[in-house]
Amino acid sequence: MSKTVANSDSxxxxxxxxxxxxxxxxxxxxxxxxxxxxxxxxxxxxxxxxPGVRQVECPFAPEELLAGFHAPGYLATLKxxxxxxxxxxxFRYGLGDVENPVFQGVYEWxxxxxxxxxxxxxxxxxxxxxxxxxxxxGYHHAHAARASGFSYLNDAVIAIQExxxxxxxxxxxxxxxxxxxxxxxxxxxxxxxxxxxxxxSGENFFPQTGFPQELGEGEGYGYSVNLPFRxxxxxxxxxxxxxxxxxxxxxxxxxxxxxxxxGVDTLRTDPLTRLEMTTGTIEYAAREFLATGLPxxxxxxxxxxxxxxxxxxxxxxxxxxxxxxxxxxxxxxxxLIRDLGYDDTRLRDVPHLAQPNDFARAQESxxxxxxxxxxxxxxxxxxxxxxxx
Length: 389
What we know:
The protein has 389 residues and is of the alpha/beta class. β7 (257-261), α7 (279-291) and β8 (296-299) form a beta-alpha-beta unit. It has a single domain, classed as Arginase, Chain A (3-Layer(aba) Sandwich). Helix content is 35%, strand content 11%. The chain is built from 10 helices and 8 strands. One of its GO terms (biological process) is acetoin catabolic process. It comes from Trichloromonas acetexigens. GO terms for molecular function: histone deacetylase activity.
């Protein structure tokens, strides 16, 4: 990567069939098969053969870059545990429990996810792609010396550190249902990286962080931004929050590069979360990110229903490359997923609104959180009250 950021009408998808070589286990909620399913849907929709679209093989991350964030002892233990399927655990490092299982190749799996995000950043900064999307990125819960939330290496942190090392200011926006705690931790004292996380409230939800009062420390005060949503928040709540916080903060910060984590566990049919959003939210966010005109490094994230992930990221990619797609899945994809036990035929979700009482509570919570940010955060960036609404 170089310091010069180019911009053109080309797009890179970072993917590898090597993703299929790994598994968290049959009973684990994280299904690696979601990547292949997404790729097949993109292919069947004709979204990989468009002018300007390039497919890039996902590389392994250079090991020497990991120590910029992760502790040496943690890395050594992760690498050792990865060598075979011998049952092992180190709870100090968060390894070997139900959430973060140890399996043969877990270190290599993590290097792939991290390498994909680094490659996406390289495609944007060095190659000059308008947008690069790494499917197997977004492990935002990994801490410096602890695995957490299915995350072993924090790919976003390592890639952003490389961008900052080259003199670039970076805005990181995370729309996963879970707070991007590991990324926030890494840059909590920095004014070179703006972190924004929109997520389900951590009051009684993993990882129990991400409240509006978490604004950063020292030089980083005002550069950590959190907007939690109450359970049952729907697309309308998300849009209000996005317009009120994300857009004005991006304008005020004026980054050189935009990095986004596009987890889709916000969908109402995700088995691990309690939000009520639809694929409409993903398309909306994609259009808004694209409209900023910023060089955009797009990475994956959560999503624990395989078909939700494939449909959402196909719509995300279609928005990125400016392609029109039908509301319905291609016939050959319908046949493919029928063999997997699905009888779905729709690419886009039908519009959905939360129940009136749930919506009213979510709206009240949103307005309360916005008032905190408007009072404590916006003056630091010369943003007028209600400037995004």
